[in-house]
Write a structure and sequence with these properties.
Blueprint (H helix, E strand, L loop, with lengths): L11 H20 L10 H9 L4 E3 L9 H14 L3 E6 L10 H9 L4 E6 L2 E6 L6 H13 L5 H13 L19 H59 L10 H23 L7 H22 L21 E5 L7 E5 L1 H8 L8 E2 L6 E2 L7 H9 L6 H4 L61
Parallel strand pairs: 1-2, 2-3
Antiparallel strand pairs: 3-4, 5-6, 7-8
Helix pairs in contact: 1-7, 2-4, 3-6, 5-6, 7-8, 7-9, 8-9, 9-11
Length: 455
């Protein structure tokens, strides 16, 4: 049997050459320029093209956005250095309206804002660290309602407005070799930076992740205390009601209200036990709000009085139950605004007294929750509808109100906040919330679709 040749230990020059060759082989596809009009079809072709250029036009849709217009749009996005991806596609079974946005985002793997012109329809979606869901929906609706609905006008209008709002940087894969012939020098620089900085970069990321996890644990611990108090108070309300399904005069409606109230109690405890990050608290307080409304309805049925209107909880302390009316109130140093309040707090305010505010622990001692730290945003958001609901307006001018606009304040359940996710233009694979890439492809306005739905 022939002997195996002895391995030769590479010297420094050989190792560096090998490293650069490997880097070139791996990165060349990402750094090579790509035309805005790419061959092929299907969401895979769309994703591959968008990794190389911000604009893709399916060959079958070239009449909608000719190459000069597509190239101009791509240059505009590149010059702005924003992670905005645009695709012009034909109506085809390859591009199901219900999933095309999600599919393209998943296959591209880049965190960003994605806009798709599908036939004559239009829709967009974004990762929350690039643009909030509300901002995307408002922008899409505004573009759909504009008078011109041709692809060039619509896409340029959308991009012009999106570039001023989108956060993050353009993907590095959009950058091609320098036109001055310095591509070799660029490769050497990239190789050197990657080789030297890989270990340092990994250490920095680990440190940042550890600090984020420590902060989230502290915030969740503070929230757990408050939510446990809320759950306990809710259980006491159930006991005080002392309803028995077999009691004289009990109706099926009463029994259903009571069953809903009991289910909410058990569900809230289970949700809180499963909470791992602060944002997991929001569905817990949503459940408690549902349960308290069921209790209020049951109490009204037993007394034979009018059934309560479905309203958000009392702003001053959600443990007071559903609000009855809105009343003018101003936080210390803030402007008056109408807030939902329970009957008892309405009476106190009308009598010139302070409402009974929900106090939480802070480093400065007990404070109303609206003067506490950012950890209480998910707690309040579950009761009052989050950034897209009443909460933002109710808390204007307060410490917590200044945090409502932050994407991480009301990140979707299961995510640890936008600040912990890859930034705009970075690779995040298919780890994203599909609800951020849902909606319709209506043509002339914000309604209508192609028969699809949310995924």
């Amino acid at each position: 049997m022939p002997a195996h040749p002895r391995a030769v230990r590479p010297g420094p020059a050989t190792a560096l050459t090998g490293l650069l060759l490997v880097l070139a082989a791996v990165l060349a596809p990402a750094l090579s320029p790509a035309p805005a009009h790419a061959a092929g079809s299907g969401t895979g072709a769309v994703a591959d093209a968008l990794k190389k250029s911000p604009v893709y036009v399916d060959p079958r849709a070239e009449s909608q956005l000719p190459k000069p217009d597509a190239d101009a749009l791509a240059k505009k996005i590149k010059d702005a250095d924003k992670p905005v991806f645009v695709a012009v596609l034909p109506q085809s079974a390859e591009f199901p309206p219900a999933t095309v946005l999600k599919d393209v985002r998943s296959l591209t793997g880049m965190t960003g804002l994605y806009a798709i012109r599908l036939g004559d329809g239009f829709n967009a979606g974004a990762d929350p660290q690039v643009m909030t869901k509300n901002a995307v929906q408002n922008l899409v609706g505004a573009v759909k309602r504009e008078g011109d609905h041709d692809a060039k006008s619509q896409l340029n209008s959308f991009v012009d407005q999106a570039l001023g709002q989108a956060k993050g940087k353009a993907p590095s894969s959009w950058t091609g070799p320098h036109e001055d012939g310095s591509a070799t020098a660029a490769w050497l620089a990239v190789g050197g930076v990657l080789a030297v900085g890989a270990g340092t970069g990994y250490a920095v990321l680990r440190l940042a992740r550890r600090k984020r996890e420590e902060r989230e644990r502290a915030e969740l611990d503070a929230l757990r205390t408050v939510v446990d108090e809320d759950i306990t108070a809710y259980g006491e309300e159930l006991d005080r009601l002392a309803f028995t399904p077999s009691e004289p005069g009990a109706t099926d409606e009463m029994r259903q209200n009571y069953e809903n109230a009991l289910d909410a109690y058990d569900k809230a405890k289970e949700q809180m036990a499963a909470a791992r990050v602060p944002q997991d608290v929001q569905p817990v307080t949503e459940t408690l709000a549902d349960g308290r409304f069921a209790l209020a309805t049951l109490a009204a049925r037993r007394k034979g009085g009018p059934l309560p209107e479905r309203r958000v909880p009392c702003f001053f302390d959600p443990r007071h139950g559903p609000s009855t009316i809105d009343i003018e109130w101003a936080p210390a140093g803030g402007a008056p605004r109408p807030v939902p309040a329970c009957a008892a707090d309405v009476a106190r305010i009308n009598a010139g007294q302070d409402p009974e505010a929900r106090l939480v622990h802070t480093d400065q001692g007990p404070q109303p929750y609206w003067n506490a730290g950012p950890a209480y945003a998910p707690w309040a958001g579950g009761y009052f509808g989050g950034a897209g609901g009443l909460l933002g307006g109710l808390l204007v001018g307060t410490m917590l109100g200044s945090l409502i606009g932050a994407p991480s304040a009301f990140a979707e359940v299961g995510h640890s906040g936008a600040d912990s996710l890859p930034g705009g233009g970075e690779f995040s694979g298919s780890d994203f919330n599909p609800s951020d890439f849902s909606g319709s492809f209506g043509g002339g306005d914000s309604g209508g679709d192609f028969g699809g739905g949310d995924w």
